Hints:
single chain, 287 residues, alpha/beta, five-stranded mixed beta sheet, four-stranded mixed beta sheet, 10 helices, 22% strand
Amino acid sequence: xxxxxxxxxxxxxxxxxxxxxxxxxxxxxxxxxxxxxxxxxxxxxxxxxxxxxxxxxxxxxxxxxxxxxxxxxxxxxxxxxxxxxxxxxxxxxxxxxxxxxxxxxxxxxxxxxxxxxxxxxxxxxxxxxxxxxxxxxxxxxxxxxxxxxxxxxxxxxxxxxxxxxxxxxxxxxxxxxxxxxxxxxxxxxxxxxxxxxxxxxxxxxxxxxxxxxxxxxxxxxxxxxxxxxxxxxxxxxxxxxxxxxxxxxxxxxxxxxxxxxxxxxxxxxxxxxxxxxxxxxxxxxxx
Length: 287
C-alpha cells in the first residue's frame, strides 16, 4: 500500500502599493540589507504572532527562482529549473516600497503569519523597477543514511505503540495487536525496493522487474506465511511517515494486522526524484 506526499508549494502573490509619494520610485535593495530587514521583522513578531526563532539565510537558487517568476514562470517550475527542492515555499510579490526595511515591513503587514513561519529558513529575491519578488522556503532536509538504524528503531517503536491500542482505520475497527520485532531479511527487502524507487523516480508496489513484495521477500530467503508492505514518499522523518500510514485507512489496516510478528524498514533519498524520499515497510509472519 502506498502513500505519497509531493512537495506542496503554496504561492502567496500580493501586489501592494506603498506610500503614495513612493509609488514611482524603484526600491533600493541589497541582498544583505533585505535579509537583515526580514530578520529584524521576524525578531519582533507582528499582529499578535510570536517572533520567529530561526533567522533566514539567503540562497542564490531562490533568487534565481524569483527572477524566473518575475518573467512569468510558475514558482514550482522555477524551483525545479534552478534545482531547489523544498517541502514548502511561498512567493510574495510587492510593489511600491522604496527600501529594504519598507519591503520587509510591507511583507509582514500583508501576511504576518507567513513571514513569522519558522519552517521558512531560506530566502531569495529579485527586484525590477518598483516591484520585488521574494521567495521564502523550507529547505529539503531528508533523513541521513548514517542514521538508518536509529530511524528503523524509531519506526518500530511507533508501530508497536500504535499496535498496542485498538483504533479505527477508516471505517474498520482494528483490535490491539501483538508487538512486532525487527527482521534483517525484511529490512533487506524494504531497502531494495526503496533504493530502486528513489533511483528511478517511481512510486509503486510493483518493481521495475515486475516483482512484488512477496518476490522481494523470497529473494532475501525469508520464508513467510503472511507478507505485507506499506510504501510512502515525500515524508522527511520517521514520525511523519508513520503518521501518514496511520491516517490512511488501507495503510493503517495493514499496520494493525494481528498476524504479523516481524517488520523491516528502509528509506532512500534522491533529491532529483519526484518523491525525494521513499519509505518501505515490510511486515511478515515467518513459517
